[in-house]
Amino acid sequence: MSLRHSSLLITTALLAACASTTPQPDGRWHSGDHDDKPPLELELKGGRLSVSGGCNRLFGTARVENGVLVVDQLASTMMACDPVSMARERELSQLLASRPPVQRRGDQLLLGKPGQQLVLRQQEDLSAAPTRLIYVAAERQPCSGVARMMCLQVRSDKNQPWQLHYGEIEGFRPQPGVAYRLRIKEVKVPNPPADAPSLRWVLDMVVEQQLVQP
């Protein structure tokens, strides 16, 4: 066997090894908070993909090969949403099916081609935090905290009366006229100030939502 042939075989083997050991960007990623639309949340774990844009959840198997995200068997929940959310989810589904370039850069995940990239940031690991299910009413109610404000109405059971929630649910951007059932994480706040809550509520999943007629 010639030296040139041997070198070619070694190079091919190294490239194959690099492709097969491409680091998988496992973790939870989000697009940040925007007042005009819910944050995009993406989770990669053990070859499984789950993505939510504020209404339905997209899921399937996923892997990174040669710098692109390969998603197979992409499916979706089937909740009815407002037209803007539905259009956003169609665009997201098309992006995931297109084998977009993916790159991890520190605590950022870049998904898509330059100029059309989604920039996602890594979320803190809340896997050990307890979860609970809550209902959120379609409308806020006036309340008094440090100042006059509009509070979310929440309850754990449909038969319970609504309770005012003095604060927000991180990662949750409710739309007026839409009632929700959420799965949330309860995170302890170390040494909270005297006038601040001892728990943070963080959105884990929108379980269901329903348009409520006025």
TrEMBL record:
<dbReference type="Pfam" id="PF03724">
    <property type="entry name" value="META"/>
</dbReference>
<dbReference type="Pfam" id="PF14302">
    <property type="entry name" value="DUF4377"/>
</dbReference>
<keyword id="KW-0732">Signal</keyword>
<feature type="domain" description="DUF4377">
    <location>
        <begin position="135"/>
        <end position="209"/>
    </location>
</feature>
<feature type="signal peptide">
    <location>
        <begin position="1"/>
        <end position="16"/>
    </location>
</feature>
<dbReference type="InterPro" id="IPR053147">
    <property type="entry name" value="Hsp_HslJ-like"/>
</dbReference>
<dbReference type="InterPro" id="IPR005184">
    <property type="entry name" value="DUF306_Meta_HslJ"/>
</dbReference>
<dbReference type="InterPro" id="IPR025485">
    <property type="entry name" value="DUF4377"/>
</dbReference>
<protein>
    <submittedName>
        <fullName>META and DUF4377 domain-containing protein</fullName>
    </submittedName>
</protein>
<feature type="domain" description="DUF306">
    <location>
        <begin position="31"/>
        <end position="116"/>
    </location>
</feature>
<dbReference type="InterPro" id="IPR038670">
    <property type="entry name" value="HslJ-like_sf"/>
</dbReference>
